[in-house]
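User: Okay, second chain of the day. Same drill as before: sequence in, structure tokens out.
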Amino acid sequence: NNTVHETTTKHMMSSTSSTEPILISEWIHRAIDEAARTSKSLNTEAEVTMAADVHKCMILCSDEYLLSALRVAYSLADWIFKAEENGSIILPIPSSDWSDGIIVAQLYQATKIGGVLTENGDPENLIKAEFLPSLLNSEGLNEINPVQYIYSLGIVFYEIFSGGERPVELLKEDRTTAVGSVGFDPLPFDEDTPIDFGNKLDIFDDLFNDDNLFCEDEGQHLPKKRQTHQNNSHHTRSSISVEQLKAKWIPGPLCDLIANMLDSTNGTLAGEDSYKSMANVRADLQLMLEKPKIFLFDQDMGKLSVTGLQFRDTMFGRNAELSTIKEANRRSISGDGELVIISGPSGSGKSLLASEFGRYVSAGGGIVLSGKFDQLKQGKPFSALASAFDLYCGNLMRDSGPLRTAEVALKLISSLGKEVYHLARIIPNLAIMLGPSKSELISHDQEVCANPQKQLQYLLCQFVDVISSSFDAPVTLFLDDLQWADIASIDAVNQLLFTPDLSSSLSKRSNRFFFFGCCCEGGINEQHPLWSVFCHANLLHVKYSNLQLRCFEEDTLNVMVSETLRLSPRLTWAFSSIVYRKTKGNPLFVSRLMLSLSKNGLLRPNLKRRRWEWDEKKIQSQKLPDDVAMFITNSIEAQTEDVKSSISVLSCFGA
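Assistant: Same drill. Structure tokens below.
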């Protein structure tokens, strides 16, 4: 055994530095002690009066212990998964005593295991677990149902997350039976071809009447080795309950994961949620590590039973497009000049993608100006731009304080002089920023300008320069619904992107400015004002990108449904397939449909199971319109007359 331990130790330490490997039972005790010492959720003063079992439960459900234990669990599932995929690696013999032959070591290398990171994305000291060679199937027992490995590992997980305790059911049953010539605990086996003893009491009658049990071997009839199938006898595994884990306040999703690993009887999957492959176990553990707030911790199902389904402001399936915009922005503010247009059908997530990018820019210290064109205000020049600058001025006064706000106001007056009053007329919050200075500028309003629109275009460009220099930060302008853009606003964008020089030809602007916008699919053609921006970009060899968003593929939609319901993707696939067929993968349609199903009770929280459940047959039978616009229209028509009247009035104000 010492030689085996030394061999395994050398293997674990060959590619990276690590602590001395220890048996998993010892690791559990050390991890509990470490979590008790470092956990921020445990109050040392309260520990004195706290019962020992209560204190241990608090440690087991602490973030410190849970995440460390999850890394060990993931490492074991990953090891078995890769061994199954490889085919040439010897797997451990299924047993209820795997814990006696598993060792754990702490690795000190800033790398990933299967891409597993903590939620904030920082690599941590990694934990690696492996099986001792004494557990491996050296005798070549190959015909083993994968369920047995899942079941055996489920018992290990039970012990890890219970703090080293064995399931009560295993402590009670007889564990002396061996299977064939290989000594290991009887586990559930495949019942595809079970032995049928019928009503006969003498099993030898069947044995000798079965010619297939014998073969020629050196002139003697010797029995073939045959996989033993457990019937409902005293050797059958009793089901293992995870109620003791729940009593220790272990998160419900983790208890469900372990229960689904143990949920088998004689190799037959007993529940529809039971695991069928180690790949699924590994994938679910990885989700718990990467997104614990979504997949590890419990939902407040009591609250959700009152509020119904809630959608978070989360972007799904657009990471490639987001990366493209980020790269274009980086090149643009570095001086290369670039613009991006996002197009796609209604409800495809254009505005949400833009909002995600806006948060990225703000988090990096950039300035974001955001406006939206309105079909009802096409005749009002600069409406979207004025709205964007007004929102910025309001945020500036709220977030930067009076001194910083006054500093920006003084720079505007210094740069634009009395002409700043023209901006104050279309930007109400700028008028508030200017304060007492505004009254000194009123008299300037009497002066007549030959071309007021050109003047406002120039002033808006100067405004961008002032706020960029005041905060030493690049400025990003986002305009939504560009298909409704007015000519004056697009001319201002043109001037922000390209500056006329002394020879009246166009050149790139030198300031750090990036423009991107959204429009509906097919909303911009050669007659649209924005077309001139594209032409100028081509003349100056300025790159522009047109990102065309499509509706979700079925797997992406399932990710959206999975994270919204906070359930494993393997559990939501059937529901997602129904939603996909009805919505064609339109993100807005998906969210509206799911909210409607929640409102009508077809998608509802189960307080006992502490998870969402749904009625597949009733959802499939629902007749829905072909597009999201008609679905929303029908939803409005279903409202009371008072509500519909209020909506009609509000619609007159525009977006």
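Residues 1-15, 109-124, 174-236, 500-506 have pLDDT under 50 and may be disordered.

User: Thanks, on to the next one.
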